[in-house]
Design brief:
single chain, alpha/beta, Rossmann fold, 2 domains, 6-stranded parallel β-sheet, 3-stranded mixed β-sheet, 9 strands
């Protein structure tokens, strides 16, 4: 397929090279001479404007950094929606607002263009390996049409629902990821308060149950309620012990205590 990429940077560049290797015709927005030389040396078509990038493209990928940049590149007078031909597809890979995705879809729809919001979860190395996770929002027919493009660098491709739902899923994903980092920092602080060194904690937590993704256990169980049925009794006992020991030794549970207090596994939970 003929593909245009606006934002051939950290994530967009490995997408471009994967697409080229898969046999697609790929054009990238390259505003500088150095970027143009790099693109041409990789077998890509270099374009100096959005309009030129989108010209004759069946699918245009948007890989800019911010939600504001999505609005600018897609909805501007010389933007993607104005440049893509009827029957084309615009895929928004940037993580941003589902409201923006819907507004772009509404504007594009009036010109006969389909829009999908498909934020990515992973690193550039995952894109290069063809294994970055894609959360796709859009109708099934449009997703089927662009799968030959997305499948060049993405697996799995998860259909989250209509336009905007890829963003909804990605925002929940990133909120949980950020919260996990915060909780890990609190766990380290608690361990220090109990007299355990960072080195010992990091090795132990990485190899213990804390180092196994809880969401994987939850997915395997099928629901929070089912997971509680399986392990709730044991965790409730251990949470009670954590509270008692921390209180006895004068260690503040901090944010961990706040989360545990409102959690299904709180002391006294069934």
């Amino acid at each position: 397929m003929r593909v245009g990429i606006v934002g051939a940077g950290r994530m967009g560049w490995p997408m471009a090279t994967r697409l080229r290797e898969a046999g697609h015709e790929v054009g990238v927005l390259a505003r500088t001479e150095a970027a143009s030389v790099r693109a041409r040396s990789a077998g890509l078509r270099a374009a100096s404007t959005i309009a030129e990038t989108c010209r004759d493209a069946q699918v245009v990928l948007v890989c800019v950094f911010t939600d504001a940049q999505v609005r600018e590149t897609c909805l501007g007078a010389d933007g993607i929606v104005a440049a893509v031909g009827a029957g084309g597809y615009v895929v928004i890979h940037t993580t941003g607002s589902p409201i923006t995705a819907q507004e772009v879809a509404d504007a594009a729809g009036r010109r006969g263009i389909a829009v999908l919001d498909v934020p990515v979860s992973g690193r550039p190395a995952d894109v290069a390996a063809g294994s970055v996770t894609l959360f796709a929002g859009g109708d099934e027919e449009s997703l089927a049409a662009v799968r030959p493009v997305l499948g060049a660098y993405g697996s799995p491709i998860i259909h989250a629902g209509p336009v905007g739902y890829g963003q909804r899923v990605k925002l929940v994903n990133n909120a949980l990821f950020a919260a996990n980092i915060g909780l890990a920092a609190e766990a380290m602080r608690l361990g220090n308060a109990l007299g355990v060194s960072d080195g010992v904690l990091l090795e132990a937590l990485a190899n213990g149950s804390a180092g196994r993704p809880a969401i994987g256990l939850l997915a395997g169980a099928g629901s929070v309620a089912q997971l509680v049925t399986l392990v709730g009794e044991f965790l409730a006992k251990d949470v009670a012990t954590v509270r008692a020991v921390a209180d006895r030794l004068g260690a503040d549970l901090g944010l961990l205590g706040d989360v545990l207090s409102g959690h299904t596994f709180a002391e006294g939970a069934p």
